[in-house]
């Protein structure tokens, strides 16, 4: 009787090894255990035996499909990361360009003290020198003596905003000011609580 059980286990192991090889790398069936959970089964051969050969094909297809889904999922996530990297690179490039422009504008000749919040008008002389003025081309009228290059608003962080972007930038700053002025949720007691630490 023991020899029958041993023979049944041997046949089951051989059959299981065939299943492992049939399903390819990374997939397979659970190893045979004569006493799962500490309980001896009546016939491990019958409980672990694969009855239909088509089940092996279905198992192999399932493993292959899982590999394909995992690969597609990883590809999608990497695509999103690549797009984020491109966006950050573009943002970094814009930050550097704005910083270079702001530095150049701060070195432009100006006979007045520049104050944040004001708009300054950039002109160019015949000699090639650029300078800031508080007089706009409209105020000069037809008697504008030099070439007008553009207008910029000096922000409170000492950055420069081109005239055409002032309205949009002011709207952003207004939203930030509104958010920062909101009362923050503070605990009801501001003083430290030493209860339990003193007698």
TrEMBL record:
<feature type="region of interest" description="Disordered">
    <location>
        <begin position="1"/>
        <end position="27"/>
    </location>
</feature>
<dbReference type="InterPro" id="IPR019534">
    <property type="entry name" value="DUF2452"/>
</dbReference>
<dbReference type="Pfam" id="PF10504">
    <property type="entry name" value="DUF2452"/>
</dbReference>
<feature type="compositionally biased region" description="Polar residues">
    <location>
        <begin position="1"/>
        <end position="20"/>
    </location>
</feature>
<protein>
    <recommendedName>
        <fullName>DUF2452 domain-containing protein</fullName>
    </recommendedName>
</protein>
